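Curious: why this fold?
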Amino acid sequence: MIDATLLPLQRAMLRSPAAALAARGVRADQVTLAGFSIGILAIAALALHAYWLALVLILLNRLADGLDGAIARINGPTDRGAFLDIALDFLFYALIPVGFALADPGRNALAASVLIAAFVGTGSSFLAFASIAAKRGLSAQNYPSKGIYYLGGLTEGAETILFFAAICVFPNAFPLLAYLFAMACGVTTLTRWLMGWRAFSETE
């Protein structure tokens, strides 16, 4: 919901470190893969109840997610980079609830399952819209530099990061927070379905 507003600030903050990495020959895909590897470590930390460590690893993953795009804008974006970025992002989002389910299956597993299903809804509606938008040559005005059509909603990247931070700081509240965020993701999914229905309903 607030990603477009935060985007100029994010780019300003990451411009210098991205330029320094690019000057040393670091490629965007390398940062993407490194960030995903760090994110996977967060799952293990969650399973071991090391919630503060998990939070640090999650934030490092999200930092890498911003840096790879900044480096790509310096070196030139690629379709492979855009594909890799979004594919690993969606998998990472779904794995965080798995970490909480592993930490306390009896308490967290059902809520984690509902949350993963909600993430499937937001992710699938996002990608379905993007695929048809690409077919029609559409682009998102709020995110002109994104590799694919970036469809907004109530729960975008910033809201998801805040949610992940909240469940790491308050792990005992995971079931309640997960159900609440899943409901918000449901609203996002429904609004994206409606946007797709309206955008693609005209006669071919």
Notes: The chain has a mean pLDDT of 88. The first helix runs from residue 3 to 23. The chain has seven helices and no strands. The CA atoms of residues 195 and 201 lie 10 Å apart.
